[in-house]
Amino acid sequence: MKNTLLAGFSPGRALDASQAYIMAGLSLLIGLGIGYVLHAGHAEPAPQPVMQMQSATPMQPAATAPAPMTQKQPSLEDIHKMADAQASPLINKLKSDPNNSKVLEQIGATYNAGHQFKLAAQYYGKAAQADPKNTAVRVKYAGALFESGDTKSAIDQLNQVLAQEPNNANALFNIGAIKLNSQKDEKGAIAAWKQLLKTNPQLAPDRKAQVEHLIQELEAKNAQKPGAPGGTNDQGK
Where along the chain do its domains lie? Predict the structure, then answer.
């Protein structure tokens, strides 16, 4: 599956050390469970197969040791089918209670984990509409929008979160990540992440260190650009 975070980087083009670390860090913090920065956050569980795969027929004893068997990895189509199967009973619950925000969020989480991001955004959006004060759901909604390619709407939703909670660490981190990856706005990303650190002293130490490292890598990268103080054009003056 195409990694949205790597959009804009040609597969055949090598990243320098700082770019590679930045992208790896964003993949770790944003990934498919976009924005789980706080220590209390948790990633959504991936959908489990509805049916167990058939076990291989036991091999007969042989003179030589049998070759190790590898389990077939599910295809994207298989993952979609698993998500559809898990979402089906939840969708049925909505027939009697169409505005149940918890059920709507569960369906969104199921489709998000199943890489069906447009469907995830649809149900997360309904959950956010049913419970407009639930900023955690709106952050997830923004994540699904981003993964489905709707960057503008994702930013709009994150800004709505910040209108309610100006120091929301998940929203600040994700805005910075989107600015960096989709808008190539490195200064905007740095500003958002510095605001995150400034306004969230309770951030878990490991998350804080990761965000600090991302900022340092970007600032070091920018310092080497031609025209930057101490950069290429300034050397030897």
Answer: 25-39+74-227
- Is-contact 145 154, C-beta < 8 A? yes
Distance of CA 135 to the CA centre of its chain: 16
Q: Which residue has the higher pLDDT, 204 or 61?
A: 204
66 CB neighbour count, 10 Å cutoff: 9
What is the C-alpha R_g of the chain? Answer: 22
To the question of domain 25-39+74-227 being in CATH 1.25.40.10, the answer is: yes
Rounded to 5°, angle at Cα 222 from 217 and 227: 160
Q: Is the dihedral of CA 107, 132, 42, 102 positive or negative?
A: negative
Burial (Cβ within 10 Å: 0-12, 13-18, ≥19) of residue 200: buried
Type of residue numbered 123? Y
- 150 CB-contact burial (10 Å; exposed 0-12 / middle 13-18 / buried 19+): middle
- Tokens 């309610």 -> residue: 164
Tell me: the pLDDT tens digits for 94-137?
Answer: 999 999 999 999 999 999 999 999 999 999 999 999 999 999 99
Residues 160-202 pLDDT 10s: 999 999 999 999 999 999 999 888 999 999 999 999 999 999 9
Q: How far apart are CA 222 and CA 9, in angstroms?
A: 18
Structure tokens at 202: 């309770």
Question: What whole-number distance in Å separates Cα of residue 82 and Cα of residue 164?
Answer: 36
Q: What's this model's pTM, rounded to 2 decimal places?
A: 0.70
The tokens describing 120, both together, are 């995830």
